[in-house]
């Protein structure tokens, strides 16, 4: 072959090799790319290094093993040295009362979903639809309706009071008509009404969750198919030794002195094999335990809350004397610390956990306190990965929404949190938020800071 012809062919071939990658790059016309990022796989605990995440509309559409390039219109987020986790879920929230004021605090803290535990306003059912239609800066919501309670109800307003099985069945029907995601049961229900609710919920294929009623044992609640139990209600009672002539403990100290490791192991085994999840709400339990401790109550995060929430806190606390608050807090603290010490052991025995805070109860801060909850879980002995699962993949499994939430995978909603530090090294690194992506919309650190500053400004 003529050398000059060979040189021309070789030159053309080299040009073609240079052009092919460019053509390939142009083909990656994604709306958003997170490049060179470390993905935290919450299923395995692995760190998937140097991935490029592609987002189109509101979903993850591709995960590349190397950096790729988009079009001129592509939003590119540099993830080098950063860690990507699924958006966080607060699985025990009272969000509806003040969601417009609380939304910025939630999003700025990486909370992209909440389980609303008391959504009794009919109009509130429409909020999730409005979020999608109007693009509001709001988390996804998994919604309950009115509390179904016995007589007298714990909260006369916003409760459906039932005293017979027929009333209990009708209450379930009313909630289903409101198109709620689950039924919320409460403390004063009789066992008969509780079991009627359980039976009707199963018949109508809707889950029920909430407080294990005072007159119902945790074993009976598990057997009934209750989806989740809140605040660890009923758990310690189920671990008490019964060799005291059938007399129940009269104080928290007696509860602890009669705590039976054998019954604890048995209860954990039953829970692990059951469909019930526990949402311990350690943050609210802690808050009730330290109401008389100014080093706890003088929390600078109060500055982000609207004045009316602080007013509600004061209304709850002010009627009580200092002595009454001291007695309540001191007694509650003994139980809280003992239950906290059991968390790791329960987790090791296979008890299933989701994380929730019960905001905005006194000194439970919307958004911020979910990170407190994770830290408390770890302090209670839970491995960091399991604590992280309690706010990501576990909520998705619990809600039967793993096709949309819970992990960083192709096809799932692009509700993600980009961290500056590895959360598996230190659970407090969940607070090192650089970017939040909510259903595909990107909020930079600057935008998140602006949300927080606006919230602080509105609180004055």
Label this structure with key terms:
single chain, 460 residues, alpha/beta, 8-stranded mixed beta sheet, 6-stranded parallel beta sheet, 17 helices, 18% strand
Task: Write the SSE topology.
Layout: H1 3-27, E1 32-40, E2 47-56, E3 59-64, E4 75-78, E5 83-86, E6 88-93, H2 99-108, E7 111-116, H3 127-134, E8 140-143, E9 147-149, E10 159-161, H4 165-177, E11 182-185, H5 191-203, E12 207-210, H6 218-224, E13 228-230, H7 252-257, H8 261-273, E14 277-279, H9 282-289, H10 294-297, H11 307-317, H12 322-340, H13 343-348, H14 368-379, H15 384-389, H16 393-399, E15 416-419, E16 433-438, E17 441-443, H17 445-458
Parallel strand pairs: 1-4, 1-5, 6-7, 7-8, 9-10, 9-11, 11-12, 12-13, 13-14
Antiparallel strand pairs: 1-2, 2-3, 5-15, 15-16, 16-17
Helix pairs in contact: 2-17, 4-5, 9-12
Please characterize this protein's 3D structure.
The structure is a single chain. This protein has 460 residues and is of the alpha/beta class. It is 40% helix and 18% strand. The protein is built from 17 helices and 17 strands. The longest helix has 25 residues, at 3-27.
Number of helices: 17
| Relative helix content | 25-40%
Strand-pairing-aware structural class: alpha/beta
What separation lies between the terminal Cα atoms? 84 Å
Largest sheet: 8 strands, mixed
The portion of residues forming beta strands comes to 15-25%
Can you count the beta strands?
Answer: 17
Rg, rounded, reads 25 Å
Low-confidence parts? 5-27, 121-125
Q: What is the oligomeric state here?
A: single chain
